[in-house]
Amino acid sequence: CWSRExxxxxxxxxxxxxxxxxxxxxxxxxxxxxxxNNKYDQPDDWHAIFLFGWVMIYLNEGVPSxxxxxxxxxxxxxxxxxxxxxxxxxxxxxxxxxxxGIEELQRNRWTLKDWCLKPGxxxxxxxxxxxxxxxxxx
Length: 138
Fold this sequence. Notes:
- There is one protein chain.
- With about 140 residues, this protein is of the alpha+beta class.
- It contains three helices and four strands.
- It has a four-stranded mixed beta sheet.
- It is globular and about 40 Å long.
- Residues about 1-15 and about 30-35 have low confidence and may be disordered.
């Protein structure tokens, strides 16, 4: 499942990736990934991408939605643009209903861009963008 903005692996450009920096984090303290004491940290130029794969299926009820909301809060606190990419099972969506996926993501202030289904526990795959402040008000 490729996003409309993505390129298949054979077409990924090699220039410009020297500007990318990957940071790992656990869900107990996502703000820590944006420390300002690192020479590579230039939050004005960042577009943060959160990636969840096989995470939400193991969390207690209520935690997956809170995690979606928490990642959004981090980006808003730091005034950063961001995206969320997932291959997981979103909460409150028993099957693969895209409309329910849109509702769950909007409730947590994410705008669905792409939605795909696959067999197995982590059946929901997709990409989202941070909901703009005007979308939240509406």
